[in-house]
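Quick one, tokens below. Sequence please?
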């Protein structure tokens, strides 16, 4: 397994990048600060950033057929997480 933080990928830097060696799966986690009550929109913005900046390109090049994209929104001691699964056709 490869685990990297602030890894240059695509057109920017993903917060957390995980490549699982014995599976054809990779994980990208983007963490954002959310104001009070903005959890859902900030989580979706994090997923959009992953897509817009093509953070998954390196995982695809490594042979990953499934990429899990996590958008995490944090505010004080609370957080919300959404996940989107992208499967290679």
């Amino acid at each position: 397994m490869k685990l990297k933080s602030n890894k240059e990928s695509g057109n920017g830097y993903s917060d957390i990048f995980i490549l699982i060696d014995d599976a054809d799966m990779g994980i990208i986690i983007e963490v954002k600060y959310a104001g009070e009550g903005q959890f859902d929109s900030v989580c979706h913005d994090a997923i959009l950033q992953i897509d817009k900046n093509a953070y998954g390109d390196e995982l695809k090049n490594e042979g990953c057929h499934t990429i899990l994209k996590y958008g995490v929104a944090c505010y004080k001691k609370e957080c919300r997480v959404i996940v989107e699964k992208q499967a290679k056709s």
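The mean pLDDT is 88. The chain has two helices and five strands.
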